[in-house]
Write a sequence for this structure.
């Protein structure tokens, strides 16, 4: 979410920040009051403060760290990332590198506040964030549970609103990884139900994230995902589905239809929706919006020319769409406006006009997890004449 420059200059310059180099030519970070425990397939930890004092060129070191935290490249992207396998490997490695930085409690709090500042500066007035709700750790190695993490998100959001009263707020979509075992996802769904009871106005729902082509299907997790209905609990789902180009006929290719059968509130990416006319018709009739992430789809090699993006046809068919940014800092882009620009010029072509942008912006409210009354309040605050 946050510009990588902020992470390098802010987080990695804090005291007690250690770094190691992995066998996969990436890095890992951890904050510790004393030397951290060794990590498998990672070189011995080195205190960054000491490393910077010894190195002859701090700028090169910082640039090297920055390169491990983003997919942005000064080289030809087609040469740097010749296939989806290569770009996804780099994508996941960058998340691994980020993890120890952003889950350190002081950085976690500052990182989220900086994210709100950057999204606000980009004219985002309401945010729904997918989050793994990690066990945030302290300098002494102790860690907090997921309820603490969600409470921190909520408290920080309220704090931000107190100084930015025109910012409408944020909600969290609790996520787990689609590579996890069924028992792990079942435990996550149960935890999501508990957290929703304690945070009814802040926890929006649940999703599974990760590379869809290589992950387990929604059908594999059907018993876990059926738990809320079996217990009479309404837990909204916001499933990633159809973020694939070459899975036609595979089990993964059924995720779109299964997402709809599981009553998903929105479809994350939905890039393959055009290949599924029944699912497409069903989602259009139910007004289940597709969260389109133009830059992400382009960088992760789902589409090269955005004029050929399936969303262009979906727009012409009046299928509900919302524009999202996925992981903007990872791509070196703005929080949201760059994605809106690419959607504007790429999907609508010469027929795009200010009304197209207005419709997409209104869709962000219409298909949000806000209650109907709050959606009306947001529209009224944003446009007194609406």
């Amino acid at each position: 979410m946050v510009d990588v420059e902020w992470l390098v200059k802010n987080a990695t310059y804090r005291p007690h920040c250690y770094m190691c180099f992995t066998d996969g030519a990436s890095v890992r970070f951890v904050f510790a009051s004393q030397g951290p425990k060794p990590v498998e397939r990672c070189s011995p930890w080195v205190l960054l403060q000491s490393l910077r004092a010894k190195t002859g060129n701090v700028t090169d070191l910082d640039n090297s760290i920055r390169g491990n935290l983003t997919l942005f490249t000064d080289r030809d992207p087609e040469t740097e990332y010749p296939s989806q396998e290569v770009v996804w490997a780099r994508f996941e490695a960058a998340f691994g590198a980020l993890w120890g930085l952003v889950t350190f409690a002081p950085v976690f709090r500052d990182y989220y506040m900086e994210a709100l500042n950057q999204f606000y500066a980009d004219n985002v007035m309401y945010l729904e964030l997918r989050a793994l709700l990690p066990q945030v750790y302290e300098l002494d190695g102790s860690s907090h549970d997921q309820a603490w993490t969600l409470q921190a998100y909520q408290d920080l959001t309220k704090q931000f609103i107190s100084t930015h009263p025109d910012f409408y707020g944020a909600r969290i979509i609790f996520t787990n990884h689609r590579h996890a075992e069924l028992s792990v996802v079942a435990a996550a769904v149960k935890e999501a139900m508990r957290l929703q009871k304690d945070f009814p106005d802040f926890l929006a729902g649940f999703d599974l994230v990760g590379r869809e082509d290589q992950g387990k299907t929604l059908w594999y997790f059907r018993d876990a995902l059926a738990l809320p209905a079996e217990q009479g609990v309404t837990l909204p789902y916001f499933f990633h589905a159809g973020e694939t180009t070459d899975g036609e006929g595979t089990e993964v290719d059924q995720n779109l239809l299964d997402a709809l059968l599981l009553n998903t509130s929105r479809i994350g990416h939905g890039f393959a929706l055009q290949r599924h006319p029944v699912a497409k018709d069903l989602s259009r009739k139910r007004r289940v919006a597709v969260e389109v992430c133009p830059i992400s789809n382009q960088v992760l090699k789902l589409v090269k020319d955005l004029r050929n993006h399936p969303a262009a046809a979906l727009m012409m068919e009046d299928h509900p769409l919302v524009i999202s940014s996925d992981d903007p800092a990872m791509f070196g882009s703005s929080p949201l406006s760059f994605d809106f620009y690419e959607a504007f010029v790429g999907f609508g072509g010469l027929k795009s006009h200010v009304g197209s942008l207005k419709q997409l912006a209104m869709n962000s409210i219409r298909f949000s997890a806000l209650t109907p009354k709050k959606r009306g309040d947001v529209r009224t605050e944003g446009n007194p004449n609406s």
Notes: The chain is about 45% helix and 10% strand. The radius of gyration is 21 Å.
